[in-house]
Amino acid sequence: MRFILPALILLFLLGCSLSDYQSIARAALSKDPSAAASALARQKSLQYAKNPKALARDLENIKIDFDKIRALFLGEVSKKWGKEETRSASQKVYVKYTDHYKSRAEVDFEKGEIVVETIDLENSTQSLKKAIITTLLTPQDPEGVDLYSDKEIKFEGTPYLAGLVKDHEEKVILYEWRASRYADYLLKNSLKERTAKGGQRVYYVMIPMTRDYVKVRSAKYGDIVKKYAKLHHLNEALVLAIIQSESSFNPYAVSQAPAYGLMQIVPQSAGRDAHKEIHGVDGFPTRSMLFDPETNIRYGTTYLRILFTRYLEGVKHPQSLEYCVISAYNTGSGNVLRTFDGNRTKALGKINAQTPQEVYRKLRTSLPYEETRNYLKKVTEAKRSFIVYEKP
């Protein structure tokens, strides 16, 4: 099973044919992966224009295929770790298995903690060292990291944890020799053992992120955010706050929707809207595209502009509009408007008759889902913190 799982992921989860996969591989190896990915998306959209039924089929299959691949993957994990010890990637936690599913890394971007562990009792030190090095040197490469298999990772390009983790000498870890030396230090000074819920022994180390990891994470994508915020006339702090709330700046974030990447784009909804705006033709972004930070932020900011200028057009006060857009990013503009009235025209009238503070209170108390009610508060508070960061 472990040999066919990566192929299934590529062909089913991405909704791609073999020729599409070959094109994606070429895009990943190009000098400008984001531009190459956009070119591939346009090419795929032209195919959909000629065959709308293929688009409808692929959109319908996104969730089905995701659930299928995830179930196969979790089955492989549970065989090794047991059902209660099974972990998988989420919005704010990166999880990657290696070594025939016997080693894994969990990077919690919200807590700023990394746990690397192994159940390989015969070669525990060697396996754990290899897993630590892999975790520290994992590149920011959507084609090189397969979250739903135990496929090994090639150390090519800058590690995505660069600057977020420093070794025992307070040095940034960019190269294998330094990662190897730090792994030896951790194994000597921080090795721990626990008993898994199934009774087996687990050897692990905990690696803290730097104290300023939130600021480092946001700065890592600052130039991209600035570029697309300027293009779409958006507040940079708002975009950063949404990324913080959606993924805690985890570039490999994934939810069960499924939504992908920094701004948690759902391919068949927000992704489809943004895709049509960007490329002028119907289509949707693939998982690999959305794991690329620039492509993800491009799609996310495009969707924000659509919310501001189209779906919630008619809300007059800028602050009221922002509150509505934040909520709509999480739950959709339809749910936001229905919070005020089932009729769009009447809903807009009621919003415009209220102060921004009243609109905020209404959204915080009357939106249909608790998650969305809390989301508005989280984003507005995070936005204030990023405004502070932006000050010279």
UniProtKB/TrEMBL annotation:
Recorded GO CC terms: membrane
InterPro entries according to UniProt: Lysozyme-like_dom_sf, Murein_transglycosylaseC_N, Transglyc_AS, Transglycosylase_SLT_dom_1
Biological processes annotated in GO: peptidoglycan metabolic process
Domain Transglycosylase SLT per the UniProt entry, residue ranges: 225-347
Residue ranges constituting the Murein transglycosylase-C N-terminal domain according to the UniProt record: 62-220
Cross-referenced Gene3D superfamilies: 1.10.530.10
Domain of life where this protein originates: Bacteria
GO molecular function: peptidoglycan lytic transglycosylase activity
UniProt xrefs under Pfam families: Mltc_N, SLT
Similarity annotation: Belongs to the transglycosylase Slt family.
Name of the molecule in the record: MEMBRANE-BOUND LYTIC MUREIN TRANSGLYCOSYLASE C
